[in-house]
Amino acid sequence: MSKEPIWNEFLTERDKKMWAVSGYGARAGYGKRPALLVIDVNYNFTGDRSEPILEAIKRWRNACGEEGWAAVPVIRSLIDAAHERKIPVIYSTNARRPDNWDAGSWAWKNSRNAEDATTRQNNNIDGNMIIAELAPQPQDIVIYKHKPSAFFGTPLVGFLTDLGCDSVLVTGTTTSGCVRATVLDAFSHNFRVAVAEEGCFDRSQASHAMSLCDLHAKYADVVSAQNMLDYVKALPGGLFSNLPHG
Questions:
Q1: Which superfamily, per CATH, for 28-96+123-234?
Q2: Which helix (H) or strand (E) holds 93?
């Protein structure tokens, strides 16, 4: 990245020097056959409007506030470019039984976990629905998951293998949670990984910045959304002959 990394304001001078000489943060580079992953950009995490986070979380406990909505047009531009080049676009969102029985370990760390996101105060919107501004198209793939990683307990790696993907381009939320977990699993499966900095968001500014720092150091290339957009637009056509027909 040409500009000052977003995480620098959170690093001590000791840490800056350590990263400078440790060898971490080398550029891995893009792959040749990528899929675009859009992680959990649903109403639970964006809310139903752009508003300050301390207002948004009153109604949507997982909402990321204005930062979430600022990322939406960035993600939209990447989706549009992927569709234009006929690159796989794969969404993830969460699944939960109406009685919340399958919350499992999610129920342990948040005192508001039992709240029903689909309530009258939330305009009866299903919180797990991907927001209308980024709604999947018929040719896109949607992964329904119960845990942070889009890989855990899902057919995602099988789909990527069948498509012949060697890499993933990651956007979505939250940077410190589901994005991070998905990136680590993609890395563990030996996919090249790139993360669009402005295409990810989180509730905590510090968690967002430091998660990007750690991902860039060890598991992925954190790049500007424009850099990723230029890469997608430059890809040759006809890479994927077996995309869903929709």
A1: Isochorismatase-like (3.40.50.850)
A2: strand 89-94
